[in-house]
Amino acid sequence: xxxxxxxxxxxxxxxxxxxxxxxxxxxxxxxxxxxxxxxxxxxxxxxxxxxxxxxxxxxxxxxxxxxxxxxxxxxxxxxxxxxxxxxxxxxxxxxxxxxxxxxxxxxxxxxxxxxxxxxxxxxxxxxxxxxxxxxxxxxxxxxxxxxxxxxxxxxxxxxxxxxxxxxxxxxxxxxxxxxxxxxxxxxxxxxxxxxxxxxxxxxxxxxxxxxxxxxxxxxxxxxxxxxxxxxxxxxxxxxxxxxxxxxxxxxxxxxxxxxxxxxxxxxxxxxxxxxxxxxxxxxxxxxxxxxxxxxxxxxxxxxxxxxxxxxxxxxxxxxxxxxxxxxxxxxxxxxxxxxxxxxxxxxxxxxxxxxxxxxxxxxxxxxxxxxxxxxxxxxxxxxxxxxxxxxxxxxxxxxxxxxxxxxxxxxxxxxxxxxxxxxxxxxxxxxxxxxxxxxxxxxxxxxxxxxxxxxxxxxxxxxxxxxxxxxxxxxxxxxxxxxxxxxxxxxxxxxxxxxxxxxxxxxxxxxxxxxxxxxxxxxxxxxxxxxxxxxxxxxxxxxxxxxxxxxxxxxxxxxxxxxxxxxxxxxxxxxxxxxxxxxxxxxxxxxxxxxxxxxxxxxxxxxxxxxxxxxxxxxxxxxxx
Length: 625
Prior knowledge:
Blueprint: H1 3-6, E1 11-16, H2 20-29, E2 37-40, H3 50-53, E3 71-72, E4 85-86, H4 108-116, H5 124-134, E5 135-137, H6 145-148, E6 164-166, H7 175-186, E7 202-205, E8 210-211, E9 216-217, H8 220-225, E10 234-237, E11 241-248, E12 256-264, E13 267-279, H9 282-292, E14 295-296, H10 298-304, E15 311-312, E16 324-332, H11 340-343, H12 346-359, E17 370-374, H13 376-379, H14 383-400, H15 409-417, E18 425-430, E19 453-461, E20 469-471, E21 482-484, H16 491-507, H17 539-548, E22 550-552, E23 583-585, H18 600-620
Parallel strand pairs: 1-2, 1-13, 2-10, 5-6, 13-23, 14-15
Antiparallel strand pairs: 3-4, 7-17, 8-9, 11-12, 12-13, 16-19, 16-22, 17-18, 18-19, 20-21
């Protein structure tokens, strides 16, 4: 519809952001025909775009403004002053439309941490029903099952009727998928259980967000919006950039949102909200929208030219927490095909594209599944000694920066890292080489000039202690905020990553993976020439390698943290923004402490729970409407 038609009526709920979480919220709220819901999305509607639908075509979406916000961080001291490109979905469906399609699960302790920090109702057992609610699990065929080694999956823990389809690919199978689980077993990894049980230690092929019937990406636009697009009480406006939330404030009470001001083709419009405004912009856009609306640190807002202060809360935009991914790229024998075969040969790439579009087969159907979660005692067997080492690092940091962690999260996370049931890192095996020097352009990281076939073993953090921030520096909504993830600003992150990298190199010596790799004359793996300094021989050399070979895993969280306000919070456990009567945030920005693995499943689960909180609030009349 046109902007004029969209603004010709008022709505009970206005959802800012038609992304991963926003479309869940809109679909669930509009199930009630007596409720009117509007969605404002800055990107376009690209349903049926083959580049989004193709499970393994996501590299074609990054750094393109029609799909991607194309964010850039400030130079990062911890990664030799490199700027990092952050691909975030600027399209209906948000980042669920452009991600790797990898499907992980938070550990029990990850979510119980939230409860322990003062968020009642947000523990592992509280969220488990919402994980099942959003998904439909498709077991593999009898032919694929032994090859993919899916025995770890417990169907009783999985959803059977949710909108998001999860599966293993039946249309293509790669050598690394067969080699990976056996390699991990031979390296001494335990037999993994279903991550839904609360722990995921071990190596396995994990599920993907792909509909096996259509062999298309299953994402929020396809799963939550498209089936409900015809509802008379659900309105969507795309290519609409939110400028700010409008408030009225009377006396000493909380501010009440009355509507949302937005831009379409540079022209300003206002949509009226009768009940609530629900911010679902994600970890970058949600704090930006709050700050543009006058909610944030007074000093930050005044400096940016926002003079109308609605709520002074310096926590807005703070607590930015991301997973890092450190890539170890190595040469693979010519007989084992890797993505370089397609990336360097336009004719083969065209054939693969035709195979996908016409027959739904081939390499574009099969995204990354080979992953694992490794505990500290597996990375470094000297556990009692390591526990003391970790405690010392955390205590020394606390003494140097006594005000850096008012919620007490670092002690909580350090204790979790020491637990043999918890992962100190996630491992991801990719059949493609990486040149981390291209960190500023995500679409170029996996394009490189080294001849031959390459693989990459990525060591990804599970719960970093380093925290940065996102803040506006202009009241102009078209100007990107300043993003500083502060990678490796906490020394424990670098220490744990370097140790995990040393461990990951030893993993490559086990069969059947080892015999598929090229070796030098001394029998060592051959590292990608972009590094150029030889194999690191000790932890200090490995720390240099980590600094030069680390990028984002594209999992930023925390900038509108769900915590008590005095401990760094922006929203309470009902997701209500402090100082407002009817504004909530429902997306990854509310995550108070990070969780292991790929986070799309977490966002779907928290969005499903968020909707129940909104409905509960209206039933109880907490908003006074």
